[in-house]
């Protein structure tokens, strides 16, 4: 047994020292060896005769060769996880996620739909973990195309990734509310919101892409969602075009780093500039979503990305810019806590209430969900007005009254006789202006003065 372990260690060292290999099996073995050494660096590192940074650099280069990433994106994703977990993430991202459908409860029940599809030869079962009451997992090998059954055409279900159930579950829309899906196409989340509301209230489904509106409208009509209104405006126009919603869902445009199994082109077409521009757009959209909700409402922010620039950093920005919001529990039954910090950057209080989902952990697309509660805005107290004229403090006891009286005796005095003369002269001038004789009878003069005034 011990000899076998020694041989494995020798093979590991040979794999680490070897040059670039075209054989992907050898590359995979070298990656696993490097990951094991890096995870137990104190025990295994010195024996390699190499620095940790050199080994990390080689491992990232092997990830690029084996999985087909650019060095930029491979390093960015590698830094999010522990070494061995990173390899699990890269491997899971090359594996398609299970095909899932969501039952349209406006038209049928999950039990009835499952039985109907089983009778047609479809292999399916409830989602793993039982966290969704409307989801079904479909297995390959069925003779019937799942997107062309009579039940599908009748709107009894929709093909929808399990991960996209999560933001709607966190949103928790209620009947008769007024809700907004800010980036709605192709309509999976919009129609789920409509179903949870029982076709009551209003669901405003917006998407900025005119080309995607057609598919959105088709799904809304097929699933019989009568409370949905479709709009085609830039999400940043809210709330100027419309506001006062009870709940808003923003499934923001993102890099797609969590859904690489669906779109492998992400591996090579995302640059640092893309992440910078996406982060800026996401921050703008989230602030507009928050401003579109009335006091007491809810905003859910989600992405299909695993990078912090598109997730925790955006949420932290919104918390700084809008003091009347706070993060609340998403209510989701699983998922990992959001990062409190990353590479020295702190994301603020409550960020652990957000949720992260990974393909190698929950077997769903990489996803992020945050939920905000909108509080009443604090009214600023009016500033105290300073007096424009100097004033004297009023006396508060007998001693101070006597002192104030003594001070008044030392002040200026007034001649009452002189004041009377000034008053009489002023009256005479006023009478003359009105054509009256100031020496006439005062009663008659007063009556005539009144008549002149009238």
Automatic annotation (TrEMBL):
- Residue ranges for the region (Disordered) are 1-23, 397-454
Phylogenetic placement of the source organism: Eukaryota, Fungi, Dikarya, Basidiomycota, Pucciniomycotina
Q: Which family does it belong to?
A: Belongs to the class I-like SAM-binding methyltransferase superfamily. RsmB/NOP family.
Q: Where in the cell is it found?
A: Nucleus, Nucleolus
Matches recorded under PANTHER family: 28S RRNA (CYTOSINE(4447)-C(5))-METHYLTRANSFERASE-RELATED, NOP2 YEAST -RELATED NOL1/NOP2/FMU SUN DOMAIN-CONTAINING
Q: Which GO terms describe its cellular component?
A: nucleolus
Residue ranges, compositional bias (Basic and acidic residues): 439-454
Q: Which UniProt keywords apply?
A: Methyltransferase, Nucleus, Ribosome biogenesis, RNA-binding, S-adenosyl-L-methionine, Transferase
Q: Which PROSITE patterns match?
A: NOL1_NOP2_SUN (PS01153), SAM_MT_RSMB_NOP (PS51686)
- The residues that the entry says bind S-adenosyl-L-methionine are 183-189, 207, 234, 251
Catalytic residues in the record? 304
CDD domains reported in the protein's UniProt record: AdoMet_MTases
* Pfam families given in the database record: Methyltr_RsmB-F, RsmF-B_ferredox
Q: Which residues form the SAM-dependent MTase RsmB/NOP-type domain?
A: 89-375
Family annotation (SUPFAM superfamilies)? S-adenosyl-L-methionine-dependent methyltransferases
User: Looking at the keywords, is Ribosomal protein present?
Assistant: no
What processes does the entry annotate via GO biological process terms?
A: maturation of LSU-rRNA; rRNA base methylation
**Which InterPro entries has this protein been placed in?**
MeTrfase_RsmB-F_NOP2_cat, MeTrfase_RsmB-F_NOP2_dom, Nop2p, RCMT, RCMT_NOP2, RsmB-like_ferredoxin, RsmB/NOL1/NOP2-like_CS, SAM-dependent_MTases_sf
Give the primary localization class: nucleus
Record-given protein name? Nucleolar protein 2
Composition-biased stretches, type Acidic residues, lie in 1-15
């Amino acid at each position: 047994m011990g000899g076998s372990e020694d041989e494995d260690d020798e093979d590991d060292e040979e794999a680490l020292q070897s040059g670039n290999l075209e054989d992907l099996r050898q590359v995979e073995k070298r990656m696993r060896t490097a990951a094991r050494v890096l995870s137990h660096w104190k025990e295994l590192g010195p024996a390699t005769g190499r620095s940790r940074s050199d080994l990390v650099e080689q491992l990232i280069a092997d990830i690029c060769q084996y999985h087909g990433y650019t060095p930029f994106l491979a390093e960015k994703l590698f830094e999010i996880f522990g070494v061995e977990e990173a390899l699990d993430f890269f491997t899971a991202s090359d594996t398609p996620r299970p095909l899932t459908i969501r039952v349209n409860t406006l038209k049928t029940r999950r039990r009835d739909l499952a039985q109907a599809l089983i009778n047609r030869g479809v292999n399916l079962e409830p989602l793993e973990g039982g966290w969704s009451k409307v989801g079904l997992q479909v297995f390959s090998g069925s003779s019937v195309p799942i997107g062309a059954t009579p039940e599908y055409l009748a709107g009894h279900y929709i093909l929808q990734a399990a991960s996209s159930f999560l933001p709607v579950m966190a949103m928790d829309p209620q009947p008769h509310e007024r809700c907004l899906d800010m980036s709605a196409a192709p309509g999976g989340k919009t129609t789920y919101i409509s179903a949870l509301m029982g076709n009551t209230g209003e669901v405003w489904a917006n998407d900025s892409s005119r080309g995607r509106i057609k598919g959105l409208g088709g799904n809304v009509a097929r699933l019989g969602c009568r409370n949905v209104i479709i709009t085609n405006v830039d999400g940043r126009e809210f709330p100027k075009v419309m506001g006062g919603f009870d709940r808003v869902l923003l499934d923001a445009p993102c890099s797609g780093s969590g859904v690489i199994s669906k779109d492998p082109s992400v591996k090579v077409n995302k640059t640092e500039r893309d992440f910078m521009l996406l982060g800026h757009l996401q921050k703008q959209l989230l602030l507009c979503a928050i401003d579109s909700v009335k006091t007491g409402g809810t905003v859910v922010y989600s992405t299909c990305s695993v990078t912090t620039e598109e997730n925790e950093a955006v949420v932290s920005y919104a918390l700084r810019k809008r003091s009347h919001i706070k993060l609340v529990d998403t209510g989701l039954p699983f998922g990992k806590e959001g990062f409190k910090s990353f590479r020295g950057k702190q994301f603020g209080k409550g960020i652990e209430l957000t949720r992260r989902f990974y393909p190698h952990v929950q077997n769903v697309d990489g996803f992020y969900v945050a939920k905000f509660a909108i509080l009443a805005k604090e009214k600023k107290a009016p500033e105290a007005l300073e007096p424009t004229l100097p004033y004297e403090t009023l006396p508060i006891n007998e001693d101070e009254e006597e002192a104030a009286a003594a001070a008044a005796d030392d002040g200026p005095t007034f001649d009452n006789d002189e004041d009377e003369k000034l008053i009489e002269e002023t009256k005479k001038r006023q009478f003359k202006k009105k054509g009256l004789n100031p020496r006439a009878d005062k009663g008659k003069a007063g009556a005539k003065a009144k008549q002149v005034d009238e």
